[in-house]
Structure prediction request, 299 residues.
Amino acid sequence: MTTSTGFDIRRIGGRIGAEVLGADLSETLDPAIVSDINTALLEHKALIFRDQHLDDAAQLRFASLFGELTTAHPTVPSVEEQPSILPVDAEEGIRANHWHTDVTFVRTPPKVSTLRGIVVPPYGGNTLIAGSAAAYRDLPQPLRELADKLWAVHTNDYDYAAPKNDKAAEHRKRFVSRKYRTAHPVVRVHPETGERGLFIGGFAQSLIGLGPSESRDLLRILQSYVIRPENIVRVAWSPGDVVLFDNRITQHYAPDDYGDLPRLLHRVTVAGDVPVGVDGERSYVLEGDEAGHYTPAVA
Prediction:
């Protein structure tokens, strides 16, 4: 599909994912091009821009076209002298080897996330992105009606797998240095499209009003719909690639399948709003603070 501003959108998954061809992110983009990119993002949920070779400044400039930037992370340090850039560095023990939506343990998770490939292994190290709107549509009607009523507790402090090495242990220590627990609707209404999506993932640890066993079972069932193969696009990285995804209606996962090889991405996120459920109720903090140091979004 050719957009009104001249670049092409090539769908790469039946339900999620497209490559953007002919857009140079190192240039100052015309507002009409930004609008077309945003329209494509809302439709395809995840966009891949190949062979861009941006520097940090260009990645920050591109991400800021979609809103005010967050700082790198609520607890994990940023790239030196770049407060809005999070280094996703395998050598520092940062391996997101579980399905999640970025930073859902705070009240205002990011709107969108950008990832830039800097060092990528010759094999493995892909990023998988899943669409939660398609998952919601796949639910049988009785399960969908139940999900509409459920609220989940998201937290950055839970029983992780044992760290593999000292660097991974240090990363975990920093990650939980400030504890957050936030209640979010299991079904989130997208603020721009009105689509409903399953807003769960690895930080969703329990369901309000249910015990641990029932919570685990129901979250496992709902999550199984998100990560069906037909709902997933796989990004095989090359250095210089940029990925943009809608954090409000996707999950992602980076399989730890590349041994001791180096892998370095830079992540920049755009500030989001407070999630809203089917009944119009908004997310609320259970423990911790509003993470105002992380996101400037107005609650």
